[in-house]
Amino acid sequence: MKTLFLCAAESLRSCALTVAMALLLFIASARMSLPAQESATHTGVSPSAASPLGHRPWANPALPSAKRAQLLLQQMTLDEKIAMVHGVTPIPVHGYVGYVPPNTRLGIPALTLADGRAAVGNGAKDITLLPAPIAAASAWDVDLMNAFGRVLGQEQWIKGTNVALAPSIDVVRIPEWGRTFESYGEDPYFNARMAVAEIKGIQSQGPIADANMYLSMNQEDNRLKEDSRVDERTLQEIYLPPFAAAIRQAHVDTIMCAYVKTNGVYSCENDYLLNKVLRKQLGFDGWVMSDWGATHSTVDSANHGLDQEMPDSRYFGDKLKAAVQSGQVSQEVLDAHVLHILLPMFQHGLFERPNPGSWSANARNPERDAFSREVAEAGTVLLKNAHGILPLRTSAHVAIIGAAGTAQPKVEGEGSSQANAPYVISPLEGIRNRLGINGNTKVSFEDGSDLGKAADIASHADVAIVFVSTEDGEGSDRPNLELPGNQDALINSVTAVNQNTIVVLDTGGPVLMPWINRVAGVIEAWYPGQEDGNAIAAILYGDVDPSAKLPLTFPRSAEAIPTSRKEQWPGVNGRSIYNEGLNVGYRWYDATNTQPLFPFGFGLSYTTFSISHLAIKPLRPSRSADAISRRFAVRVDVTNTGTREGAEVVQIYVKHPLADGEPPHQLRAFAKVELKPGETKTAIMALDPESFMTYNTPTHRWMRRAGTYEILAGTSSRDLPLAKTISIPLK
Ligand code: NOJ
After folding, report:
1. Where does the pLDDT of residue 190 fall: very low under 50, low under 70, confident under 90, or very high at 90 and above?
2. What angle (nearest 5°) sits at the alpha carbon of residue 173, between those of residues 169 and 174?
């Protein structure tokens, strides 16, 4: 297992091979110890299935996958095809949340599906709980996100999962969204970069990844019926890019259609979204599975692009068989669905290695525990640090206050992604570990349920650290952006007696901070996973320099958000109107000149940086007939002007010509640069052709518009000191 962590991101292919070899050996030895019956059930391939290749020409790995899938399809009966396009319940094998039984006659392995955005879910034991994806994304580090995917994929594979239900890549439209923590943030380009990195990571380890939830799945309230009314351009420019990148750049092989409706039609029977956009526009050749219970019809779903119903056969079992027999669904349509499933199964080698592991296998190891901590440290965002209160001196007497800091650490969100942490280090434990003390000599603590007691310990401490949290999860949105319960009051009573108060947020998304001017420090630690306490201690005491940045905007008030009207969220008469259009997240704050509390892309460090010398030049110029499709190289010098080692994220935003009707400026490139004190490095980034494209609704096409574009460089969406213009010619 150690191999994984020694693999450089550039050599992923050979890395994957090495790890796969190691895993196969591991699996082979694990299987040998299984009772015969369990082993046979799990593989689903009976000994008699081992026929000569001649009887099973599709078993020849030398043939192209598409050919093998075709050869196999030719041998399948109608019942066998129908069996591929739905799951079965109850699931006959312990653990998985979705299951398609093996076909022993033809040697088709079972499909074993498991949840998990930050760990293997569905009650699996002996796994590693990583920080929530929103935390990992906050590191703005695609290599880290790739490693995150590798760990997730590796543990799923060890658990016998061959379809990992991750990642969740929807753009965060409303700050109250109950599943914000599962996603990456509010920017389509940023989410696309993260999705590609994570999917490549997952799929490099064996399992097929699953991009979910497709599409316009942006709220939990009323999610089983909600109708997202969204115009075509917004759909294409804001909500689609992460999925487009997942398909084109990461070759994701399954996509989960969502619960909601888009413009009146349920996602899993939406001809426009599935047939027109996914298949025709994006060239998706994997399979679309429904979210659990998100299938609503037989004929429409089958004809409009759903390949597989999950978790059972309500619409795609006998009813689909009858629809094929009566001609309402053609044989060709059914065959296409089956091929969409078989092709990735061949491409991922599932026929050659059908039994990747076992649900009861132990997926833990010290390297992955350490990785969980690394991600938590890298994803923790320093939002306020008045008069250099942080990092703390180890001699300071600290009061740890709040349930999330003591008895009830808040390390993950709730819902289908929830996992069993093997252990959790609370902030109190982490700080004690860091200080190397056992008793209360320099650390006092209170859970915050009694404001008087909390104020009392705060008044005797040099520094008070208040840990607050939100209970985000699937199924409902947060009712508002306030901290629940008495937590604002708790912060107020502590700040009343101690000016050196630091608030640590363990939240799944943005919260309001009515106390912001009274606290000295604010840290967003998100849902930090099993290493919570160790990671926050490392940040508080400066063992690690904070270098994370917000992947979404924190608003100043409940009104000053893009979706403050009821018709936008949670919707009226079941409809949520996306009338903010393209102005999602920071785009809206810029377009309406609204001051956020903390802008997208913002995050402090214990050191300081300056950026200079923005330079832009075309990449691979002139050879292409279409000069406009050139990419541009952007260079920016970054200097560490402080006294500590640290990392800065350079962000490049593009401002379109006014006539494009685009939001003021949009993220199109970024790079993270690590620097020693006094050191200068040049960050080199690429601006892709898409940076200059918009969606033209009348022609239903993406197009590049000639004109003058402004390229802005800086360290948050609201701090863009460098600018240059480039001209894109007509042709
Ligand atoms: C519903 C969730 O929306 C989805 O993300 C998950 O994969 C399935 N349930 C299966 O648990």
Report:
1. very high
2. 125
Please report how many Cα atoms fall inside a 13 Å half-sphere around the Cα of residue 425, on the Cβ side.
Answer: 25
Q: Where do the CATH 2.60.40.10 domains begin and end in the chain?
A: 609-728
Residues recognised as catalytic: 291
Q: Probe ligand 1: pick from 169, 210, 292, max atoms within 8 Å of CB? A: 292
Residue 164 half-sphere exposure toward CB, CA atoms < 13 A: 36
**Burial class of 661 by CB neighbour count within 10 A (0 to 12, 13 to 18, 19+):** exposed
Among residues 150, 156, 140, the alpha carbon closest in space to that of 198 is found at 150
Measured in angstroms, how far is the CA atom of residue 294 from the centroid of ligand 1?
A: 10
- Determine how many CB atoms are found less than 10 A away from the CB of residue 256: 23
Residue 6 has a CB neighbour count (10 Å cut-off) of 9
CATH class of 380-591: alpha beta
pLDDT at 430 over 50: yes
Average pLDDT, the chain: 91
Atom of ligand 1 nearest to the CA of 416: 11
- Listed range (20-24, 415-419, 561-565, 708-712) with the worst mean pLDDT: 20-24
Percentage of the chain beyond pLDDT 90 is 87
3-class secondary structure, 598: strand
* Ligand 1 pocket by Cβ (under 6 Å): 97, 115, 165, 212-213, 291-292, 416
Q: Which CATH class is domain 609-728?
A: mainly beta
- Dump pLDDT digits (tens) for 630-681: 789 999 999 999 999 999 999 999 999 998 999 999 999 999 999 999 999 9
How far apart are the CA of 214 and the centre of ligand 1, in A? 12
Q: Whose alpha carbon is nearest atom 6 of ligand 1?
A: 416
The better pLDDT of the pair 519, 36 is held by 519
The Cα–Cα gap between 73 and 501 comes to 66
d(CA 663, CA 568): 19
Give the model's pLDDT for residue 357.
86
Strand pairing class (693-696; 701-704): antiparallel
